[in-house]
Every structure is written in C-alpha cells, then in structure tokens.
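Q: I'm building a small set of examples for a reading group on sequence design. Run inverse folding on the following structure and report the sequence directly after it, with nothing in between.
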C-alpha cells in the first residue's frame, strides 16, 4: 500500500512540476485497414470463352461449365498476405488446384505465365499462393491461403488460374496441378 501511495505521489508531483507527458504511440497499421500500407487485388465473375480483355475465362467448359464463376481477393500488408477464392457452378464434389500467376489471363491458357513466387526459388505452399479447393454438391467452394510475407510492389500476381487436378505438394513435381481450366485476371484496387 505504501508503494502505491508513493507512486501516486511521484506521479502527481511530476504533473505539478510540469514534467513532459509521454505521448501515446500510434498503433501499427492493420493490413487491409484504412490508411494501412499494402496491396489489394481482386477480380472475377462469370467464366466465359476467351475474348480480348476478358477478365474471367473458361478454357475447359467440361470442368468449368457455362455459368460457373470465380472471384478472388488478395490483400497484403507490410508482412502478411491473405488470398481468398470463391467459386460456384463448377463440377460437384471435385478437387481443383488453384494458384496465383504472374501474367493476366489471355486467349490461351499459358498466357497467364508461371506461378507467382515470393522468392524466385522453388514451388511450395510457403513460397507460392496455393488455393486448392473441393466443391460441394452444388459446385461451390471457398479457399483461403495466408502467407507470412507481403506481395512485392511492382511485382504483383496478375491472375488466378484454376487447374484440373489438386496441387502436388512434394517431390520433383511439387506445384503441378494439371491442365489450366479457367483464369481470373486480377487488378489492383
């Protein structure tokens, strides 16, 4: 009790003598919050046949039937990245691979280029953004990937590609997921 009284007295004495107050430190920005530094990418819609400037493309209508849709949002703060993919109208009860790629979608599946990698070194779920998903009975699914790194300004992913197979996670084939089924071009928001 004496210690508490002494501390209160010292505090009151400091205020009375004009000791400078310590200003509270501002909180660190929260990724995705207003005023936070970072990146926000998004894109998607109903998948359609490849066409000039199309932003949501189906390359394989057997695996991405007419009316299917895909939407992606990806946010990156100073040290973290979160990407969320939502799909609908795909084949029911099926697993697809999905990854961020370096180029926008184009008329041909390979136009999206290789996988986006944080460090140009190797294919892994730690170095790339893998969003594999299994659809429900209605062909819908949502997948989220969180990375402990941020997207690099000036070198951002430009598309999401949905693949025909789940991603191979280990070995010499790590990162492969079969033919490209659909593509969504991403834009900075």
């Amino acid at each position: 009790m004496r210690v508490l009284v002494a501390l209160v007295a010292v505090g009151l004495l400091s205020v009375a003598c004009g000791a400078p107050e310590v200003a509270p430190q501002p909180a660190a920005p929260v990724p995705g919050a207003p005023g936070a530094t970072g990146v926000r990418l998004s894109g998607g819609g109903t998948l359609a046949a490849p066409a000039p400037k199309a932003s949501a493309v189906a390359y394989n209508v057997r695996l991405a039937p007419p009316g299917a849709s895909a939407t992606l949002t990806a946010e990156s703060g100073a040290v973290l990245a979160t990407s969320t993919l939502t799909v609908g109208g795909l084949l029911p009860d099926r697993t697809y691979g999905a990854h961020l790629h370096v180029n926008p979608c184009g008329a041909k599946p390979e136009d999206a280029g290789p996988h986006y990698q944080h460090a140009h070194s190797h294919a892994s779920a730690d170095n790339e953004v893998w969003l594999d998903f299994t659809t429900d009975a209605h062909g819908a699914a949502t997948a989220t990937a969180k990375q402990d790194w941020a997207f690099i300004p000036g070198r951002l992913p430009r598309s999401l590609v949905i693949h025909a197979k789940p991603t191979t996670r280990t070995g010499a084939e790590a990162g492969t997921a079969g033919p490209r089924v659909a593509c969504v071009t991403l834009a900075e928001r």
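The domain at 39-181 is CATH 2.60.40.200 (Immunoglobulin-like).
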